[in-house]
Q: What sequence folds into this?
C-alpha cells in the first residue's frame, strides 16, 4: 500500500521497530502498538482517548488541537507503550487520491518529475500539497508501455498539523499514511487468507466515511464521502430538539431498527432512513466506478468499521440494498494477545480501532506499500 512516508523529508532508519499507530479522530484518539511474531501480528497495547462531551460535533482538528495534545500527554504518562515513535494518517477533503496511467518510467525518474506529472490530476495548488505515489502494475496500450499509478496529494497544513500535534504530545512522528490505506493494511494483517477476494471497506467516522475497494490486495478505489456519524446525530438532534448527548444515545439505542410498538423508535428510524439511503447511493457509486474499470469484476463483501459501524440494522440494511454480504470488521479478530474478556461496551468500540491497527503495522523504512 502507498504511504506518505517521504512527505516531510524525515530521516528513517532501516530497523523495523515497533511504532504506535495514532488515529486522531473527531470524537476520540485511538492508539495501537503491534509486534510481528513469526507470521502473525501480536497486540502489545491499545487504547481510546475520548474528547470532552461539550465540544461541538463539527469542531475541526485545528480548533481542538490543544485538547488533543493534552489528552495524549495525560494518557501517555501512564500508558506502557514500548516506544515514542508514531505513525498517523490524514483523510477527508485535505487528501486527494487519483489512479492514473502514465508512460512507463523508473520510480526514481517519476519521483523527480512527480510535480509535473501530478498537476493535471490534483485540484489543489501543487505548491500547497505534499505528493506521494505508488506504482501498482504495468500494462500495454496501443504498443505503448504504461504504468498503473496511484497519486496521493495531502495539503501541507493538514500534514503539518498532525505532525506538530504528535510532537507536542511527546511522540516522534516517523510516517504519515492515509486512512483508507491504513484500513487495507489492517485487513491484510487480520485476514491474510482473504487476499484473493475483492472487498469494500466503509469506515464510518464522525466527520466522513472512507470508502476503499481492494482487489486481491491491491487498492483500486478510494473515496471520502461526507455522510458520517455526525450527520446521523445532527438529524436526530434537530428532530427532537435535544442536546448532542441525548441524540447520540437515541442513535445508539434505536439505529435503523423498525419497532412499530415504540413511537420514539419509529421517529428515529424515519429520521435516519433517508441518510442511510444516501449512504447506499454512495456505496453503489463506488462499486459502479470499480466495475466500469474492467470486465469480470465483482465485490464479494463489504466490511464496516468506524464509530457508526455498529448502528443497529445498518449492516442488514446495506446488504439488502446492494445485494452484497456485509460484515462488521473486528480488527483484533486474529491478533495474538488480543483480549478475550471484553465487556459489551468495549466490544462495541472495536470497529473504531481499524485505522489505528493498520497504522501500527507500518515500520520505519518500509517504504510505500
A:
Amino acid at each position: 500500500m502507498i504511504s506518505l512516508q517521504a512527505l516531510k523529508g524525515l530521516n528513517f532508519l532501516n530497523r523495523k521497530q515497533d511504532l504506535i499507530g495514532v488515529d486522531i479522530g473527531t470524537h476520540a484518539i485511538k492508539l495501537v502498538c503491534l509486534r510481528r511474531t513469526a507470521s502473525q501480528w501480536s497486540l502489545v497495547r491499545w487504547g481510546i482517548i475520548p474528547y470532552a462531551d461539550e465540544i461541538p460535533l463539527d469542531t475541526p482538528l485545528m480548533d481542538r488541537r490543544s485538547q488533543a495534545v493534552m489528552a495524549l500527554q495525560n494518557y501517555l504518562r501512564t500508558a506502557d507503550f514500548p516506544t515514542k515513535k508514531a505513525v498517523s494518517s490524514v483523510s477527508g477533503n485535505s487528501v486527494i487520491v487519483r489512479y492514473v496511467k502514465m508512460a512507463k518510467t523508473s520510480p526514481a525518474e517519476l519521483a523527480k518529475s512527480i510535480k509535473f506529472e501530478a498537476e493535471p490530476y490534483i485540484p489543489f495548488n501543487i505548491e500547497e500539497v505534499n505528493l506521494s505515489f505508488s506504482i501498482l502494475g504495468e500494462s500495454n496500450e496501443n504498443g505503448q508501455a504504461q504504468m498503473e499509478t496511484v497519486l496521493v496529494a495531502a495539503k501541507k497544513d493538514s500534514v503539518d498539523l498532525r505532525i506538530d500535534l504528535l510532537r507536542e504530545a511527546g511522540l516522534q512522528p516517523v510516517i504519515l499514511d492515509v486512512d483508507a490505506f491504513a484500513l487495507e493494511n489492517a485487513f491484510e494483517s487480520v485476514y491474510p487468507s482473504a487476499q484473493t477476494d475483492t472487498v469494500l471497506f466503509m469506515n464510518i467516522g464522525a466527520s466522513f466515511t472512507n470508502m476503499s475497494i481492494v482487489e486481491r490486495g491491491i487498492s483500486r478505489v478510494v473515496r471520502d464521502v461526507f455522510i458520517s456519524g455526525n450527520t446521523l446525530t445532527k438529524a436526530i438532534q434537530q428532530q427532537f430538539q435535544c442536546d448532542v448527548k441525548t441524540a447520540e444515545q437515541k442513535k445508539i439505542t434505536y439505529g435503523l431498527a423498525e419497532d412499530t410498538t415504540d413511537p420514539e423508535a419509529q421517529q428515529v428510524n424515519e429520521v435516519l432512513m433517508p441518510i442511510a439511503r444516501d449512504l447506499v447511493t454512495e456505496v453503489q457509486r463506488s462499486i459502479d466506478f470499480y466495475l466500469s474499470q474492467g470486465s469480470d469484476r465483482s465485490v464479494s463483501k463489504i466490511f464496516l468499521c468506524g464509530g457508526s459501524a455498529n448502528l443497529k440494522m445498518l449492516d442488514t440494511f446495506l446488504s439488502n440494498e446492494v445485494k452484497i454480504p456485509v460484515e462488521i470488521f473486528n480488527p483484533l479478530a486474529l491478533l495474538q494477545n488480543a483480549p478475550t474478556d471484553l465487556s459489551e461496551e468495549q466490544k462495541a468500540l472495536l470497529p473504531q480501532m481499524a485505522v489505528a491497527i493498520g497504522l501500527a503495522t507500518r515500520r520505519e523504512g518500509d517504504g510505500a506499500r
